Amino acid sequence: MLRFYPGNPDLQEYLKYAIQDGMIPVAVFVATMLQAARSPDLHHPATLDMLCRIALDSHYSSGSPPMGSVVPYGESAIIIVGTVQDALALLRTAHALPLTHFHQLTTSASELVILLLSLSTTQASIQLQDITEILQNFRLTPVVRQALDNYMVSLSFLTGDNAKAAREAQMMHSLQVALGKDDVSGPNSDTDVITFGLELHHLVTHTARRFGAGCGPDAVALLVGTFRWSSWPASVFYTQLFTAALLCLSQAPPSTCFIWRAFIVGRLPALLIAFEEAMTSDNTVDRSAKQAAMSIFHRPDILAHCEHVLASAEGSDPLHPNLPFSRELLRQLVDTGLLDGRNALGVDPAVLEKTLLPLHAEAQNAGFDVESYIDSKLPADLAIEDAHILFDRICNEAATHTAFASVVMKRFILLSNSFDVEAPSRLCKALYLHHRILDIVSLHVKIDELLYQTVSLVDSYDCETIGDPQTAVSHLGDIVLFSQYTLAHFNLDAKMFVQGDRTVSGLFLQSASQVFLHESLSSEDTQAFNAWFKTLFDSGSEGIEDTILRSSRPKTLLKIAATLFSSAISSRIEGKIDGDTLNNGISFFTGPLLSWTLVGVVKFLLQEIYRKGFMAPVHIEVLQTLLLSPSCPKPVLVLCGSRILTLLASKAAKDRLAAVRFDVATVQRLVSETLGPREIAHIQHAMSLGMHVSWQEQSKQAIQNVLAMARAGKAPSINLDRLVKTTTPSKFLRSLWTELSLSAGLAETETFRRFITFVLTTPLSSAGPPLLPIFLHTVLPSLLVSVDASQTHANIELLVITVSSVLTAASHLELALRGTRWEHRLVFGHPIASMARRLATDLRNANSYAGTAIIQRLSSSQSFVANFPVFMGEVGV
């Protein structure tokens, strides 16, 4: 048919479908196509280019190496050589046919030849090894030995017997790809779990922070920037993204399996829908998503591993059993439109049954959409136990996660318009008492926008006109505890929360442990302090009256709570009040009216006990009273737990605490049960390391872990924010360069390029300075000096790869961020064009051999110069 209809798109779609559906294996298509391409009847650029692209895209989207994809496993060397000859014939034909601007036949044919030649080299290497063993282990006749020696020489020319030369050739190929010298429009290699592993771990680890999964536009911009930088076809991009996501889940520890399942099933499809909308100019993206989505269900090895990991981590709930992961993912891909229902039924005939999603089925039977149904299941007087039953069901049904997060956000937005805090306080308490549900919410909404609502309420709340201030303050306390817990759980900066043109600071939540000198308090705070101290720690006090609650704001009470305890304990030590008076005042803090202030109070007590070397019997007694109170809020134990366990584990603690009858075992057990095994393991690991691990060792170990995982074919991860905080950014970047250039360097240029590009172009989730300008303008000049001194050619090549790759990736991300909140906020600190201009000037003026070599290499790349014309022109030596 193609002889009569050259390049026909309908025939093209038919062939693609046949391969995707498994009717025609890729290897069969490649061999048949190459043989047919010898016929003059098919010598039309449109037809041959179309056939080549079908073969190449099908191979890349499979995620498999060439052996097993373009050629069947176990294929004989003779057949492979014949296929290579057919490919070379196609390459000759491609160069003989007239050039056309609409088709890149020479490019496609060249790419196919490269894939097949890699197989020939592999076969030659196997034969070379066999011959070497025969020559070493057997006594052969001179004639046979001479024949084998001659054949070995021929094979060595094909395989290359010099390892250093091979590494340099690999490095030069990577350099050419980075600089755009190759005409190949496809990817740099078949797979890239490094980039996607690092990026996906970043999205999930920092889900509630900027450029985390919960901030949709930021996360989508990262995906768009990566797609444009990778130069991959859309089908390959999607396939590798899905594959990397499954690898992240399959290698996750039991404590994080749940969040990876929630992300892959409940969040990733929505991000990809937004990605498609951002890539509307590329009409291949939608079809590629469907093709890639189908391909992952032909990887039973990874899917089975994911199922096993999840089953081991989550166990089974007979009342609300989990769906099999693959079925749940398949159903969600259909529901979001990323996959056609007919294709899904071919994978799993039961995937579209309504009973698979119980909450959705209940909503439909009740005449609601799922969001309205969940909203109706969260009434204002909802009991915590009932809320947690609903939360458990939502956790088990990822298709409800988006709707639930939307309900929660809408409930919190209502806070700003109402001073009725009873209903939101119940929701806040239900959320902070459930160890998983907040993580789900963070995948779908911006937690800082949610916290803006709670912090604003606490910041402005006043009981002056409240009819029942004691009940109101108790309810408000749960909102305070929720805010403190959420800030710490997601490691957020409370300095400023922004909503449109309005801002509010949450620092008062994080500074609640501060003890103030009386002269440093404002007149309002001083008045409140005196009134509360007399109410709490005066033997003649009649208790807490409504008048004192109406006269002082809850925010002020939270601020002065630690100071009240400090003054009361000092008064007890000095004999100004007796033990009963102190204990009576403390007893008010064990009830719901004031227990919400205890996070700061307990932190203050721990600081004082440690500072005094455990010679603080009154502080220790008060601490034990608060911690062992049955009504001590869970967030107090969670947020102070690591400090408590660390303090009790010290050698000085045991004898001195025993002397004041402090129940160490009970407190340790209580805190451990509250924190759970995951957090306890983290604390014990940190204590085992001690305080003597240098930042250099931490940095080195993190980098080596990434390289080890990449070499093992796993999806690597690294916490850049934590590493940068252990030292200065410039010191970390120099350490990174040293470790990468020594450990990866020329032997692993692709790993080197992807890793360093991720580090320098992925915005930090914290408020630290961007790393890219620090590297280009501070670290790079010092590297040039050391390279000039050592005259190391390899480091020059690595610097060229680094500069070209990071500038290109950063420019793509900068472009992708247009239309988001970062459009006018310079995520890299400066415009990329400005940094490139400064770098070009610095390299020209550096009077450096390495600098001159770098700019000459960069200026020789037409594609790089097209993006950064400041590198154009000759460089004087």
Automatic annotation (TrEMBL):
Ranges annotated as spanning the membrane: none
Assigned GO CC terms: mediator complex
One of the protein's GO biological processes: regulation of transcription by RNA polymerase II
Protein name, per record: Mediator of RNA polymerase II transcription subunit 5
Protein's gene: MED5
Cited InterPro entries: Mediator_Med5_fun (IPR014801)
Pfam families tied to this protein: Med5
Function noted in UniProt: Component of the Mediator complex, a coactivator involved in the regulated transcription of nearly all RNA polymerase II-dependent genes. Mediator functions as a bridge to convey information from gene-specific regulatory proteins to the basal RNA polymerase II transcription machinery. Mediator is recruited to promoters by direct interactions with regulatory proteins and serves as a scaffold for the assembly of a functional preinitiation complex with RNA polymerase II and the general transcription factors.
PANTHER family cross-referenced by the UniProt entry: MEDIATOR OF RNA POLYMERASE II TRANSCRIPTION SUBUNIT 5 (PTHR35784)
Main location as per UniProt: nucleus
Keywords noted in UniProt: Activator, Nucleus, Transcription, Transcription regulation
Entry's localization field: Nucleus
Superkingdom of this protein's organism: Eukaryota
Oligomeric and partner information: Component of the Mediator complex.
Family per similarity comment: Belongs to the Mediator complex subunit 5 family.
A molecular function GO annotation: transcription coregulator activity
